[in-house]
Amino acid sequence: MNKAKLEYIWLDGYTPTQELRSKTKVVENFDGKLESCPIWSFDGSSTQQAEGNSSDCLLKPVAIYPDPERVNGYLVMTEVLNPDGTPHASNARAAIDDDDNDFWFGFEQEYFIMDTKTDLPLGFPRGGFPGPQGQYYCSVGGRYTWGRQLVEEHLDICLQAGLNIEGINQEVAPGQWEFQNFAKGAKKAGDEIWVARYLLNRLTEKYGYYIELHPKPIRGDWNGSGMHANFSNSTLRNAGSKEVYESICEAFRPVAEKHIAVYGAYNDERLTGLHETQSINEFSYGVSDRGASIRIPIITVQNGWKGWLEDRRPASNADPYKVAGIIVNTVKNAEVEVEA
């Protein structure tokens, strides 16, 4: 008899940063299709999502991927619902207004690999500091590089799972890395980042490491970690107009605080105006400007103002569902104003 292991993955209700949770459901004669994954439940009183006297929350499957590390295993990304089937307050995915998948997102997920024995990033000596940033970015060799074995294994299992990882690189600090993921559809983009994060965190269990998504886990002259959001829709991909791009960028200015509110906790420690960031209290945009809030890629300009934008403000611990959702809303509002 064929039995499959379905790993249901969801986001808990902790604040200011939600964490991943998962549990396994064993089913018989599973065909590997999303529609064959039943709605399941969990104890919301253990995840800050319900009270003990009414503790059941529902898990609605929304995406499925093969699990490369389990025999007959599948990774099932889910949304959390209330018992009556309505979206739970912690469920940001359900609020994304992109049912036609017109929005494309490319997230650049930065993170630190931490040693459980020292609670320091790999490459940081106990009781001291490594050399200043500069030599570590995209480096090779044991003098400047730590954690490559885990990073390479993570890339392999993500690709085996069918996630559209488009690249990896070491970042500017020891033990700091990045992977890039691209997806057509705001919800799908969020699904893939969360599943990639899940695989990364699970992988550390056998290495004696853990993943740190705090945007500034180490004080000092370091860039910190972000989750830059590259985005486009039909308008941006086909605009052919500098004025359209500037109008959309300007639409982000009056709602800058609303964006910052969902761009990750402790982001003020990273967005200082230094280290290729704009101050958290300012808003700006510019062509090829990595010190701006929103960068207009030079390729977009060279392609006749047809392409995408990069919001550089989201922190590494931000929820990609919330980031994508508010970007979609702001761009859509800007389009209404441009048409008017």
UniProtKB/TrEMBL annotation:
It comes from Robertkochia marina. One of its GO terms (molecular function) is glutamine synthetase activity. It is an enzyme of class 6 (ligase). Catalyzes the ATP-dependent biosynthesis of glutamine from glutamate and ammonia. Its main location: cytoplasm. It catalyses: L-glutamate + NH4(+) + ATP = L-glutamine + ADP + phosphate + H(+). Keywords: ATP-binding, Cytoplasm, Ligase, Nucleotide-binding. Residues 87-340 form the GS catalytic domain. One of its GO terms (biological process) is glutamine biosynthetic process. This is Glutamine synthetase. Belongs to the glutamine synthetase family.
